[in-house]
Amino acid sequence: MAKTLELRPLGNTGLKLSSVGFGASPLGNVFGPVSDDDAVGSVRRAFLLGINFFDTSPFYGGTLSEKVLGKALKALGVPRNEYIVSTKCGRYVDGFDFSAERVTRSIDESLERLQLDYVDILQCHDIEFGSLDQIVNETIPALQKLKEAGKIRFIGITGLPLGVFTYVLGRVPPGTVDVILSYCHYGINDSTLEDLLPYLKSKGVGVISASPLAMGLLTESGPPEWHPASPELKAACQAAAAFCKEKGKNISKLAMQYSLSNKDISSILVGMNSIRQLSWDFVHCKSLEFFLENYFHTLLRRICGALWGVDPIVFWKLIALVLVEENVAAAKELGIFGKDEKSLSEIEEILKPVKNQTWPSGIPQS
């Protein structure tokens, strides 16, 4: 494998994750159909570029993401210890169930779909939608038994409200929870996860951050209609994106730079939904030349020169592979040249009135 990405330690686990992680929710057709061939090709290309961390869940696509990722990883034909797999439990298409019985059964189902003997990390999925006391007293002890049985190596928890992490970590024995996965809290518009990092580090807990584009807020095309952000936050992010475009910059690339720059965060998870969003930018731009100069430079220019006018499905399959490379290239560029401090400072000034604004998620906790 071409080791083109920085590997970062994950808390006290001994694992070293690629700074960019492969978020596999789109393999469950969450953002549109993805064929098995496309999935295998994307996973293979990501692996060859140095991505060793793959994250999924039985919730994504009603278990389809796990099945397709399992097939794609098997097709790599490499030793199991060369990639790190994380899946989740507790959230399913038919609702939330963090009971010991369900999460115990869940891992067996996931392992079968993934065609694996074990997963590296099993995470309780979006715990703010369950009873946090149940997570502490029932779910995590059940996961410890799975760890002892060799079905999982490490235990994690995920959620949007940052308070759920301190609640759980403050009530379980040290070393019980190995990893937290936070999303939408370490980006240009919201960096509140940073305040929690010293606490997590003191606990030896590894940190993974997802949604560096804030679920579409930090893109030129903007978020989907269902996005839960306030109108004020959406408007500010769109103003920042327009400012970047006027300056010949791309806000999504700058957002990735920002998120990748904190090395206390082991991996930034990027889903293929970013491909879909960038594809919409392509559809709406005034000319192919503008798109090429702002997104894919000479690499995509060569592909487009050869394939412009062919079947759009074939075209976008190749675009998807190029975008995997673009995410890796962003990480490499950051390592060589550092952050674009001037542009980031200008964006932060635009977003200052809505800095760290978030949205509610979960159920009331007693």
Question: What this model shows, in words?
Answer:
By secondary structure, the chain is α/β, with parallel strands linked by helices. 46% of the residues lie in helices and 14% in strands. Strands 3-4-5-8-9-10-11-12 form an eight-stranded parallel β-barrel, surrounded by six helices. Strands 1-2 form a two-stranded antiparallel ribbon. Helix 1 (36-48) runs parallel beside helix 11 and helix 2 (64-76) packs across helix 3 (100-114). The radius of gyration is 20 Å and the shape is globular. The model is unreliable at 273-308 and 310-322 (pLDDT under 50).
Overall radius of gyration: 20 Å
Query: Helix segment count?
Result: 12
Question: Helical percent range?
Answer: 40-55%
Question: What structural class results from the helix and strand content?
Answer: alpha/beta
Total strands: 12
Biggest sheet architecture: 8 strands, parallel, barrel
Instruction: Classify the beta-strand content into a percent band.
Output: 5-15%
N-to-C series of helices and strands:
EEEHEHEEEHEHEHEHEHHEHHHH
Largest sheet strand order: 3-4-5-8-9-10-11-12
- The span between the termini is 49 Å
Give the overall shape, derived from the CA principal axes. Answer: globular
Low-confidence stretches: 273-308, 310-322
**Mean pLDDT score:** 85
